Amino acid sequence: MSASISEAREVDLDLVTAFARLVPQVSKSSPPPTADQLAEMIAHDGTTIFVARADDDGRIVGTATLVTFRIPTGVRARVEDVVVDESARGQRVGEQLTRAAIDKAAAVGSKTVDLTSRRSRESAHRLYERMGFEIRDTSVYRYSL
User: Fold this and answer.
1) How far apart are the C-alpha atoms of 77 and 96, rounded to whole Å?
2) DSSP string over the chain
3) What is the pTM assigned to this prediction?
4) Tens of pLDDT, residues 17-67
5) Could you give the dihedral angle defined by the CA atoms of residues 38, 43, 46 and 49, in that order, rounded to the nearest 10 degrees?
6) Which domains does the chain have, with CATH numbers?
């Protein structure tokens, strides 16, 4: 399967339906975003949602989100929630989405791109390492509200 990558510019039923199908494939604990939440993300200057559409039928087969922001030491970039539909896995869609995010991060002035991935996502780890991501010697802390 070949896919085309684009930035989501507006919310439509196709996008909402795709997130409803894709988010449960990456997270069992988080509900898919609503149309209003997707619109908020798209409207935010520091958030870019990338969509992968199958070239044969235009159906959304994957998404990734890039978050960029300025801090005192420069522009930071994080790739979040890369998810490829089970039917399209192993066909380089995740790589295309991640590459689009890296390219956008470079275009906005970030010198690095960070991401996290659960240990159980072994195929995702292989992808990220093949693309040149390296495990950092750091600790990630989380404060639950």
Assistant:
1) 17
2) --EEEEE--S--HHHHHHHHHHHHHH-SSSPPPPHHHHHHHHHSTTEEEEEEEETTT--EEEEEEEEEEEETTEEEEEEEEEEE-GGGTTTTHHHHHHHHHHHHHHHTT-S--EE---TT-HHHHHHHHHTT----S--------
3) 0.93
4) 999 999 999 888 999 999 999 999 999 999 999 999 999 999 999 999 999
5) 40
6) 3-130 (3.40.630.30)
